[in-house]
Amino acid sequence: MPISPIDTGRYGSEEMKQIFEDKNRYQKLLDVEAAAAQTLAELGYIPRETAKIIKEKASTSIVKPFRIKEIEKEIQHEMMAIVKALSEQCGEHGGYVHFGLTSSDALDTALTLQIKEAIEVTERKLKKLLEIFLKKAEKYKELTMIGRTHGQHAAPITLGFKFAVYAYEFYRHLERLREAKPRILIGKLSGAVGTFAALGKKGPIVQRETLKKLGIKEPLITTQILQRDRHAELIFILALIASSLDKLATEIRNLQRTEINEIAEPFAEKQVGSSTMPHKRNPYRCERMTSLARMIRANVQTSLENIVILHERDLTHSANERFIIPQTFILLDEMLSTMIKVIRNIQVNKEKIRENLQLTKGLVLSERVMMTLTRKGMNRQRAHELVRKLALQAIKENRPFEEVLLKEREVTEKITPKEIEKLLNPKTYTGLAAQITTKTISEIKRRIKLI
Question: Are residues 307 and 383 in the same domain?
């Protein structure tokens, strides 16, 4: 009976989950055995006919997963269960299965093959999300809204600019994955403690040629296992992506608050927000992403612990990796799929955006007033203090900033009433937001083509 919400189908795409199912895991282990046998035959270690038979039989359609589990239950060793199950199908040639290898040769290399497939799915979804960010950035690059710092109204920005900032952040995640792959997508066939003792002088050639057949790189040196700093780096990068998704989800949740109501995640016609309050439109998708991100970040700690191995190999990393690697990929996959839907269908309340721009009655243009006074000859520090004092007065008296400015002689001596009116138009104080957004869109599109 399924217990995990991953197993019940609640989280993760079938495409990603299938990568980590037992059937695919077993197939990857069989792929390693088949590739190794082929190389061993080419180098004269085993008969060519034997390698041919092993390759033909190394399939879960022949070596049945249920049989592997039967044998493992009896002998209590997963890798030897696979070796025995494959040997059974190879008849007289079965004695050559796993020739010169140790369990970790196959286990670590097969895990890398799974990781390779999972990274490909992750990269594809990252690119899809990036594409949507860029479209939204282009669409809203001129839409002025209030920018916030410390949770307070700061200065005008554009919604497109915000999307462009996220696009660049997620592009960096693509870069990180690309740069880390040569370190992460590594296999090994160097034997019991990594010295190739069982295969002799041609051992490094066996490793190199087998891994080449499998489409992954070889290490310079390793012990009986691949060192787990590689896997920790992978989990950390995935956690970085999850944290950026969490940050964006949190931003959407904040901007969806009733008091703000500028943007919101999509809400279907028949969707229910609350079991008791019919009016509720809860941002559950974004809240789910925050919840899953917390689990993924917790897996980073475990992956760091796994770096610490006793001597040339122990099993302290093995059991928890069966959880944290599939879980991290599957939960991140769920987050990416969800965010793609949210951003593609994001609801933008332009009326509320305009209303919130005026909420402070012009105070968000205080910097502009200060800079204008400075350009017209006032000492910068004096201009700052004067505008600060007038801003606090406007807040205390609940008066429009323009009204307070017009009453101040030091201001009107340098800025005319007509100029003050223009200065307090937020749509004309977004700086280079639109131009920077356009440049960012163009540059990210160019760079993506190079990945």
Answer: no
